[in-house]
Structures are given as structure tokens and as C-alpha cells.
Design goal:
The chain is an alpha+beta fold. It has two domains: 2-102 and 203-233, no CATH class; 104-201, no CATH class. The protein is 26% helix and 36% strand. It is built from five helices and twelve strands. It has a six-stranded antiparallel beta sheet with strand order 1-3-4-6-12-11. Helix 4 (103-116) crosses helix 5 (188-201). It is elongated, with a radius of gyration of 21 Å. It starts with a helix and ends in a 6-residue tail after the last strand. The relative contact order is 0.14. Mean pLDDT is 80; it is low at 146-154.
Amino acid sequence: MKRESARFSQQAINRIAQIAIASRLKQDVEISVDIATTLSQLTKGQIDAIEILIRGLVLSEKLRTEEFQLNIGAVTVKPLSAMKGQIKLLHPSEGKLRIVIHEADLATAFYQSIQSNSVRSSQAISGVQCTLADGAITIRCSLDELSDNSESDDAESTVFTVVPQLEQEAERRIIWQPLLSSNFTYSEWVSDLLSKLDRLLSLKDFEQKGLFLTPQEIKISDGILQLNADALIQEFPPD
């Protein structure tokens, strides 16, 4: 009976936390929460570990993530808030973040970013396609009409491939390195596109919302980009 009661209490804690996080995010997402604690520990504000998996979370740059998984180690929280499912950390905690992005969602967010702030006339761009394979991102920008920035007189699209590299500095910033080829021209427009790609995938917005990330690994294959990062968490979920 005690074991069944403990299991029920654990499920209730997880469910309450799911509802609380969903209300903060204000998005139509699928949330799974696994809080390793007991009612006795929770009344003292003690949690052994937290695993949060969110499917379909849209980040600030309109980038939809297939999976957003945050694993947090042992934390101390406000007891009364914790009983209501509100995870309010009393001290910063360390964790691991895994983000999975589908190539179609990356293309959609990239296209919207280009349309909003593009060096090239936005009317000349009819669409963007991103292909994720073999550790690289291939970007194809289709053109509606020719413009002064076209690389050739008969250009109907601009295609280039980039590979991610992690700086070996403390911050481990992601650098997007274009693969050079005989027909590749590193123009002002390509530089602008690379800047937008970096903006989409650097996740710098989290630093303003209590979640500081240090990228550790990027995997790109079969239409999927996976980013693994160390996380310093001051607040979750972010406002």
C-alpha cells in the first residue's frame, strides 16, 4: 500500500508540474515531467533531479523544436511553490540540454528571418530549403526574379553548404563554416545569411531568461539537427 501511495504521489507531483509549466509557456506543446523526489522531500524544498521533455516548443526566433529536453540535477526550491508544481530555484543549478530540430522547421524559421531582414530584396526570394545530412546544412534560396545581387545573370537559386565548428574557448561558440567550391562566391548576402543562421541556432536569447548554455556537441544527419549543451539554470521555465 505504501509503495502504491508513493507511486500515486509521484505521478501527482509530475502532473501538477506539467500543468504549471504549460501555463507559463503558453504554447500548444506536449510536456512530460519527471521529478525525482518524495512528498516528504518536497515539503522541505528538496528535489533529487528533474527531467523535462517538451515536444513542439517554438523558440523566440519562430524556430520550432522537435524535442526540447532539459535534465536538471539536485536542486533546492521554494517548498510551497513546489507543492503547486512551480519550480522556483533557490540557487542556480547545473544540467544538460538536448534540442532536436527538423530540417523543415529550420527552413521555415530561416525563410521568415530572411523576409524580415534581408540584404537582398525580399520580393526576390520565393522560398528556402534546408537539407541536413552528413554533418552539414545545405541551404537553397529560390529566387522569384533576378536582382542586382544575383551571382549570375541566369541565377534561379543560391545554394551553399555549411558545417558547424565549436570554438575551444570557454564559451564554445558555434561557428558556421561554408564549404568552398569552384562556383561558390562569399558575397555580402551569403555573409548575411550565415549571420541569420547563427542567430537562429546560437540560442543566445536564453541568456536573458535564466538559462545559460555552453554548446558541447552538434549532430546533423538524416534531416535532423541535434544540439547538446551544458546548462546553468537560474529559472525554469523562462518567462
